[in-house]
Amino acid sequence: MAKKTIDQVDVAGKTVLMRVDFNVPLDDDQSIGDDRRIRMAMPSIKSVIDRGGKLILMSHLGRPKGEGDDSKFSLAPTAKRLAELLGQPVAFASDTVGDDATAKAKALKDGDVLVLENLRFNPGEKKGDSSFAGKLAAMADVYCNDAFGTCHRSDASMVAVPESMAGKPRVVGHLVAKEIEYLSDTISNASRPFVAILGGAKVSDKINVINNLLGICDNVMIGGAMAYTFSLAKGGQVGNSLVEEDKVALAKELIAKGGDTLMLPIDSHCGDDFKSDCNKQVVADGEIPDGWQGLDIGPQTAKKFSEVLKKAKTIVWNGPMGVFEMPPFDEGTKAVAQAVADSDATSIIGGGDSAAAVDQLGFADQVSHVSTGGGASLAMLEGKAFAAVDLLDEA
């Protein structure tokens, strides 16, 4: 699945239209709470401007509905922060394909950078509109996709724009190249034992992932709240635990299909309320009393999972084992994170909560790869094809 990268294209004197993920958190004063997504795009940005290319950056931010005050979703703060990181001026266009964007794109000199206003301010972005895409495409000589978090979507900037640029170079940036290397290539050629760890609240969010991984992994471990739907499917008592009653039949099918490959918790750390200072007890799986809820895998499960992870050669992890934001119900996630960090395996952490957990617990530097896209990494683990990636130039 290897794709041609931005480094492999001659950009000197050319205009590069790069889709980035600048969907950063902004506070009420329009200050950026976490600029990590901007910093992560820097290698691809510098690859263009350091080699004398002209760069136009496009991204979405939040979910503007075109109602009320959309200015809180403006990308202007990201242009300002990027200028600080680069140590050079960064132009900002007040629209995407209007007069301001067109004029500022034409005025770019070699090594200059322009950030367009939020793509989602134009309804054509979410609709995948070819007319909107054509106007964006007309601004540039090269298309670069460095926004893995939206690679599973069919937004105009992801699919219709590169389609409109057929015949011109269409490549991936550093971030997307790395995601493909780990999430696609490593998984399709996994060293064994290959172990998947799946957590989070809902079985419904992970059905297709579980199904796909049961067919390719040696072990698939289940934790988090979705484990209680499996417990119910086995006829267990789950007390007040979060369960999906309408997914019990499906959980039974997955248990039957999974056999020894599917590893479910053998004990549960419970509380009588959803708070840190509640009364707590550890019970065997399927023995949660009324008035209590499972909030984490128990110590025996953590030990069992850790022993299997020690021997793994490839590990994929998506979703925490419990309520990791609320000690002491972070212990299961912590134990699993420690086992992953201590293993010799190629370890891939899916985006979203599992990435946040690994980061919060201080293990981010001890794993092989932390994905930048929650929904996109899940879709790739399902084995889905990505139109936004498939149409780009092969390496």
From TrEMBL:
**Enzyme class (EC, first level):** transferase
Residue positions binding ATP: K206, G294, E325, G351, G352, D353, S354
EC assignment:
2.7.2.3
Reactions it catalyzes: (2R)-3-phosphoglycerate + ATP = (2R)-3-phospho-glyceroyl phosphate + ADP
Subcellular location, record wording: Cytoplasm
Specify which residues bind (2R)-3-phosphoglycerate according to the UniProt entry for this protein: R37, R120, R153
Read off the Pfam families from this record: PGK (PF00162)
Q: Which domain of life is it from?
A: Bacteria
Chief subcellular site?
Answer: cytoplasm
Q: Give the molecular function GO annotations.
A: ADP binding; ATP binding; phosphoglycerate kinase activity
Q: Which UniProt keywords apply?
A: ATP-binding, Cytoplasm, Glycolysis, Kinase, Nucleotide-binding, Transferase
| GO cellular component term, pick one | cytosol
Question: What assembly does the database describe for this protein?
Answer: Monomer.
User: What's this protein's name?
Assistant: Phosphoglycerate kinase
Q: Which organism is it from?
A: Novipirellula artificiosorum
